[in-house]
Amino acid sequence: MAGYKETPRQKMIALMYLVLTALLALNVSKDVLNAFVVVNESLDDTNTGLDSKIDYFYRKFDQQYKLNPAKVGPKWKESKEVQNRTDNLLKYLNDLKFKLVMVSEMKDSAKVRELYYKDTVLNGKHVQYLMLDKVPTRDKYDNTTNYLINNREAYRLADSLKSYRKFILAKMHEPEDSKTIGLIIKEGKAYHDATGTPEDWEYHYFNHTILAADIALINNFVNEVQSAEFDAINYLYSSITASDYKFDNVVAKVIPKRTYVLKGRKYEAEVLVAAYDTKTKPDVYVMPGVDTWKPEYLKKAQKVTGESGIVKLEFPATKEGVHKYAGVIELLDPKTNKKVQYPFSGKYMVAPPALIVSPLKMNVFYIGVKNPVAISVPGIPTEKIKPSISKGKLYRDPENKSQWIVEVPKGVKKTYISAITELDGKPYDLGKSEFRVKRVPDPIATIAGITGGQVGKNQLLAAGAIIPELKGFEFDLYFKIISFSMSTIINGDFVTLKTKGNRFSRDMRRRIKGATRKQKFLFERILAVGPDGSKRTLNPVNIEIK
Predict the structure, then answer these.
(1) I need a surface site. Which of 28, 64, 67, 306 has the fewest CB within 10 A?
(2) Tens-digit pLDDT profile for residues 364-399
(3) Do residues 366 and 348 both lie within one domain?
(4) Other C-beta atoms within 10 Å of 451: how many?
(5) What CA–CA distance (Å, rounded) separates 220 from 47?
(6) Does this model's pTM top 0.85?
(7) Domain limits for position 525
(8) What CATH number does residue 344 fall under?
(9) How far apart are CA 118 and CA 533, in angstroms?
(10) Do 390 and 266 share a structural domain?
(11) Are residues 323 and 463 in the same domain?
């Protein structure tokens, strides 16, 4: 019988990187969130397909147990232990996804089920399916980080996964450091952030991770758990001697390493027939672009010869979109000594790398300001991304190595941030993002905290200056007042006084001290200079003495 050779870690590594890079995305665009939804749906489909394969082997185990309970009984009982242990862990993982949505949305369980879950049937079972695209807070991380890190749920998750891995390896008679299955969690602060700071597994994967990425990561654990279950059942089933097998229901299976493929990489899958002699060399005929196999495709189909009952498929991922294929696997029937064909089909998605440049304060870049941004690409480690900017300066934030700083000069209306990486030893273009560039908005001129109205004489003297305020602006910036004028009517004459800086001049203070009730003072021609060096004329301030 052919085994499931690739480890779960290898199968899902691209999606793991997608989750890890999402840790930096604080302001995630709608398109990226939609990508998370697509990836999660793809993971759900992959997990459903794997669940179907696992059910197939449990049914085969039950058939063999009924045929020969004395011979098959011990291994069959062990398979039931694996099944029960796996079911309990999968229930915990699915409950954890549900709990994270509750925590993020701050709604009770009944409301969460009503709004974000739908009933469906998978493999003959009624299940509730999470509609991630309906969850408004899928781009938030505050509540989920508090629950997973501060409430230590991530640590309970790690203990559950480590315990399950130890259990499965024992069933397969493998040492605890074996890489036969995934779910490998290093002890202690064995992980590092972009600055090289040591972190434990829980903090590394779940601190400041948005809800959509948390769900993707937990779906990945579901896949790894199911893959480990598949490997364990496969091992136990293979332990029964070949003479106990019945080959009356052979079905071709397609097992992809991943169904979400970055453009420029390869789609890889294994096609195998369960319960056949590993010495067989099956031939596979594959026809790209079709849903189901037809006999007339045989002359045009691509032939691939396998080893040990397994055939590896590779398709170049050069065109974006969903790709389908179908074929037959051809084997020699040991009973009739004639070739028998078993049809199969599959599909996979090819997507371009999505460069994510997330401004951490505003949705545009401002001239004369150090604009912080997070830069990531799903499927690519952050440290392997080499970004650049078309106009301006782009450099690592010296205080936070996981972020970048953008500085844009005067006169620029838009700029682009692009990035490259190295794949298979060659440079690879990761795309670019366009950003509008604006000058910092004008501040509001205020005196004694107001822009006009009645003020007591002593309060006005105590204020003694014009203060520019930037309201509703995320950056902590300061404008400098260069000059202004003050006008008032004294003994029927309109008097105007000018001064430099933002403080009232001595003459201005003298006039204010001698002011009478209801006397008006107009502060205008207020000239200020911003961090970008541009001069701004601010709003006038009209004051009346109480």
Answers:
(1) 67
(2) 888 888 888 888 877 677 788 899 999 999 999 888
(3) no
(4) 15
(5) 9
(6) no
(7) 444-545
(8) 2.60.40.10
(9) 56
(10) no
(11) no
